[in-house]
Structures are given as structure tokens and as C-alpha cells.
Amino acid sequence: MGRPLDLAMPPGADPATLSRYLNRAHDDFVATGSTDPAVRRLVQESWRRSIEGGLDPEQAMAAIRLDDAALAAIRDQHPLAAGMPVIRRLLVDSAADSGLLVAVSDAAGQLLWVEGDAGLRSMAERMHFVAGADWSEASAGTNAPGTALALDRPVQIFGAEHLARQVTPWSCSAAPIHDPDTGAILGVLDLTGGDEVVTPQSLTLVRATVAAVEAELRIERLSPAPRASVATTGWQAPSLEVLGGHGATLRHGSTTTRLSLRHSEIVLLLSESADGMTTAELGVALSDDEQAQVTVRAELSRLRAVLGPIELASRPYRLKNVVDTDVAGVRADLAAGHLRRAVARYRGPVLPASTAPAVERIRDELHMHVRSQLLVSSDADALLSFADTPHGRDDFEVWERVLSILPPTSPRHAQVRAHVSVLDEELGV
Predict the structure, then answer these.
(1) In what order do the strands lie in the sheet with 101-106?
(2) How far is CA 259 from CA 263, 278, 411, in A?
(3) Element (H, E) at 29
């Protein structure tokens, strides 16, 4: 069972009456610091976080941190770009017809897309509700995208529940979007407008769209992008996925095959070898005990029956087909400077159940390559996306790096600081 929804406007509530009450409660809080106990606890806690972070309710404006070039670069790399067609189809088109806005942020609260009704977009620009602006609580105070990000749960904010005075005429419903493989927060989907966006139906629509986006991301990863030659030849390279799973998944055309751990190791090693490998070399690569060559040959014979149209040549053993691997994809993203895309693609270590020496080397080298790029990065979104995963949860240096670049006013700063303290104590750093 999930957490019960904390609705901003319970069924049967009168919007005008609720709005008058919230405006009085907002004014009292700004003037005295005291909160009416009838104000939702979620809102009270967010107001206090914002004030303690130094936010001025009367003057605060969301900071615009990304210029057009930086915004375009992030959009190009961000994993949620693959979900935008779904969001436009399920939410943006109807929102535009209804006079509403749809926004998508990254995991740090920066708005990457703001779409919908043109007239409303023009009005929203006056409060910096635009692509490139930072709508985390630290920058904009209590708001649905920022508070959903801070709490990692769906959130509705109605009118004067917003802390910043310029935002109080607006209402919004938002929900986090998670990586379907790692569970890390990728960003937030938000619906903004008037009273109608804080109904139970609006939040249900937002959550349903988030579920569709997460499903689309999973499907997109199960359907690797065609190579450049596909457009002219109609041929698509086989793909091998070895990240985060106990065995590899091999795809060729419409065929999907789950390989045993030993076959996964062999196919990965052959895909990494430009010149192929002899039976003796495979034996050393697969085991510290240098498996008997007859055992390796037997495995290769069984593997041929599994590979289907993928040809396994011998003397030395090699794959005659080009095989795209997710390992190579991560390396290519890192080489191109696409850190966010690399982190999204890196769903976990290479074949974590394998004890084959050569596989362990590939695993360690790739993991350290990703970490080294993160540790010199100032991209909070990429760092948090890695840190929130099982393979990043206990990485003290990564969490320290996150803490060093997050502003003290960030809604996640306290949680990150607490986690660093726990790791410090556990590891005796």
C-alpha cells in the first residue's frame, strides 16, 4: 500500500472559503512566524524549511540558472527527454486546451520544459516559472515541484500554501519521476494553473502520466537505438545488456534471450576483444583456476546454440557480428561529456554475480570511470541520480561531493548531511 494522498483541497471543500483562510494563515506566518495548526503539516514544514534557509516570502523569485545553451545541452542528455512525447500526448495537449501549464524538472529542481497554454506561459514568466529556472524549495520556497522533490512523493499546493508572495495566485500538482531500474529520482512532473489543478482527479492524471513515462523509459531501454546503418540497410546490430543484472540479456531483432552467467561472461569478453580470444585465454579470463580447455570448448559449443543468427567464429573465438553493449554505451557517453546520460544508462555494476577475473576488471574499471567523472563534476542532478541508487548509496566520496556542492538552503541538504554522517560513523572515515 502506498502513502495516502495529502490533498490540498479535500472533496467537498469550497475553493473560495479555503483560499480566504489560507491567505490569512499565510499572512500570519509571514508576520509572526506562527502557523495555524489547521494548515497542512506538509505545508507548515515546507514553510519552515524555506524560512530557515533564508528565503524572503515577500521578495523571493526563482533563480534562472540555465541560459539557452546550457538548457539545450541538459535537455539533450537528460533521460527524461525520452519521456517527453508521452507527457505531451497524455498531458500537455489537454493542458493547453484547458488553459494549464505542464512543467518537467530535473532531480535538482531546475525546470527543463514548460509547455501548455501560451497566454498562461506568458503570465508565468513574470514569476520566473520558465525553463532554466530553479524551482527547488531553496530557490522558490514552497511549491509543488520543489516540495515533491524534497519529499519524494506526490504533492499538491493550493494558492497561498505557496510561501513566495508572487506565487500565491497559482496552484499546482506534482509527482516525482523515478528511474525504472535504479529507483533514483530523475525529476518531477508538474501541472500548474488555477483551482482545478488541485482536485483529486488532477493529481491522479499527473501520477498516471508519471507511470506511463516510467514505463516508456523501461521500454526505450529494452529497445536499443538503431545504428546509423539501419536507415540504409534495414539491419540493426545485436545488443548485450550486462549492467546490474545477474545474467546478460541479448537482443537481436525481435528475439530476446536471457543468458546464463557463464555465457554472459563469454559473450561480454568476446565483445570487448577486437582480435578474439583463444581457448586458453578464455580459460584464464574466466577463472583463477585456469579452467580446462575442454570445459571452455564445451561452453562455447553450447553457446552457439543460444546465439541464433549471431555467428561465433573460432581460431581465435570471436563474434562475427558487431554487438552493441551497454558497457560501451556508458563509455561513449562519458567520452562525449554526457554525464547525466551515462549515469542514467549505468543501472548497476557489470554482471555483479560474476567472479571471472576479466569480468571483475571490466566491472571495476567502468565503475571507477563513472565515479571519477562524478567526483569532479558540479552537476548535482547527476550526482544525486547516482547517489540514490543501490550502487551509490554507500559511496562516501560521492555523498561528500554532493554535500560540498549543494547549497545549505537546498531541501536535500539536511538529508545528505545526515547520510554523510552515518557513512562517516559506519566507515570510520
Answers:
(1) 111-116, 101-106, 185-193, 171-178, 155-158
(2) 6, 21, 43
(3) helix 15-32
Q: How many CB atoms lie within 10 A of CB 362?
A: 21
Q: In sequence order, what E strands does 249-311 have?
A: 249-252, 255-258
Strands (E), 37-184: 101-106, 111-116, 155-158, 171-178
Contact, 185 vs 107, CB < 8 A? Answer: yes
Q: Indicate the DSSP class of residue 133.
A: B
Residue type, 161: E
Q: Which three cell numbers stand for residue 167?
A: 506565487
Q: Looking at residue 91, what DSSP letter applies?
A: I
Residues 221-237 pLDDT 10s: 766 544 443 343 444 67
Q: Is 355 helix (H, G, I), strand (E, B) or coil?
A: coil
- The one-letter code for the residue type at 58 is E
Architecture of domain 235-324: Orthogonal Bundle (1.10)
The reply to whether omega before 316 is within 30° of 0 (cis) is yes
- Which residue, chain included where needed, has cell 510561501? 163
> How is residue 24 written as a grid cell?
490569512
Per-residue pLDDT of the chain (429 residues; tens, 9 = 90+): 355 568 888 778 899 999 999 999 999 999 998 888 889 999 999 999 889 888 899 998 999 988 898 899 888 888 899 999 999 999 998 888 888 999 999 888 899 999 998 889 999 999 999 999 999 988 899 999 999 988 889 999 999 999 999 999 999 999 999 988 778 888 999 999 998 899 899 999 999 999 999 999 888 776 654 444 334 344 467 889 999 888 888 887 767 788 889 999 999 999 998 888 988 889 889 887 766 677 888 888 888 878 877 888 888 988 888 889 999 999 999 998 889 889 988 989 999 999 999 999 999 999 999 999 999 999 888 899 899 888 999 999 999 999 999 877 676 788 889 999 999 888 765
What angle is formed at CA 151 by the lines to CA 145 and CA 157, rounded to 5 degrees?
Answer: 45
Residue listed under C-alpha cell 499572512: 27
pTM above 0.70, yes or no: no
Class for domain 15-222, per CATH?
alpha beta
Helices (H), 135-275: 137-140, 144-151, 200-222, 230-233, 261-272
288: region left, alpha or beta (phi > 0 left; psi from -120 to 50 alpha): alpha
